[in-house]
Design brief:
Blueprint lengths: L1 E5 L4 H12 L3 E5 L9 H9 L4 E3 L6 H10 L3 E6 L6 H6 L1 H20 L4 E8 L23 H19 L3 E8 L1 E3 L18 H9 L6 E4 L11 E2 L1 E3 H16 L7 E6 L5 E2 H12 L5 E4 L8 E2 L4 H7 L7 H16 L1
Parallel strand pairs: 1-2, 1-4, 2-3, 4-5, 5-6, 6-11, 7-10, 8-13, 9-14
Antiparallel strand pairs: 9-12
Helix pairs in contact: 1-2, 1-8, 3-5, 5-6, 7-11, 9-11
Amino acid sequence: MKILVTGGLGFIGSHAVVELQNKGYEVVIIDNCSNSSPDVIKGICEITGKDLVFEKFDLREKDKVQEFFNRHNDIEGVIHFAASKAVGESVEKPLLYYENNLSTLVYILQQLANKPSASFIFSSSCTVYGQADELPITEDAPVKAAESPYGNTKQIGEEIIRDTCKVYPALKAIALRYFNPIGAHPSAEIGELPIGVPQNLIPFITQTAIGLREQLSVFGDDYPTSDGTCIRDYIHVVDLAKAHVVALQRLLDSKNASNYEVFNVGTGTGSSVLEVIQSFEKVSEQKLNYKIVERREGDITAAYADTTKANSELGWKAKSSLDDSLTSAWKWEQKVRS
């Protein structure tokens, strides 16, 4: 069975490709390599021992998307990762984010709507909840006004898919609302490799520990949490990748309750920034140079998932601990810099 993975050379996409191949799916990747590298293919193939098809082009080119689906008319499912994802950059370049994250989604859905049946997994985000009124966050929590154009593209993306599914019953879709993906494949063949200064906590931690960054900034220690730092739900990227395969299989087996569903994907446990630092120092045996600085605009106090729905309906559960995730992230960082 042939599955298209857009953005399949990125951090989460590459791990999803590995899990798909491990389950026997034939994988085709589209990636424009704006935030990834073709070198990732070598790492994927090293892990799985299988070949894959890679096509490098930009999904904003509508005619190329159409031409691709004409050639690959036997694609039965799509996992859509391709998107710009830096919150700060989205504030500075909103039109880039709206074009890249929404037009590409529309062009793919237009192709899938023509098929007698199609299964679609959308890479969404817990940013749609903003600062939730209640913790842990369930799928029924209200979607709040987005804090950034990036967050807004995830909200609008979900609306586009939901509205499309209403009029195309043969199209089945699941939006997976991720919490905070971290870590790397245990083989250290693939992992998170941000271009430029990392926007996320874990690569900044590992780059500081290895000497690439002088100091880690902890944004605020006066939040209403146990140690004053922000709390997030950190999920190992391999656990997250497996959730995509399970969700896709649910659609392909027609086990979905409706043709548009939403699931939270997290661990169900919140960890503060200082707890993450302490965990990293323990597993890496490295003392981290960090400094408490002013709060960062747009940061919410706490977000962690209620994973009951994913656990019961998908039969999926995150297995790796925070220590496991940080061990794999450190192993990957050391390999990349060796």
